[in-house]
Amino acid sequence: MITVRASLLAKNIADLIAIARADPGKLTFGSAGKGSPHHLLQELFKQRTGTEFTHVPYKGGSPAVAELVAGRLD
Question: Cα-flanking dihedrals φ and ψ of residue 63, to 5°?
Fold first, then answer.
């Protein structure tokens, strides 16, 4: 599952990929830390879709979700 902040104009995966390709590295993604399953899956997603996101590692999944809900993480 991929979740985005409410104000991001991505209604589906195709929209998210288009937004990411339009401005490489602008969108952020959070994970439960470097090398975590979330981080590695996002790296695979980037590789397979030809997109670039900025990784923001957190100390666990809960802080990342809190930042997403607050709108400080894409």
Answer: -65, -35
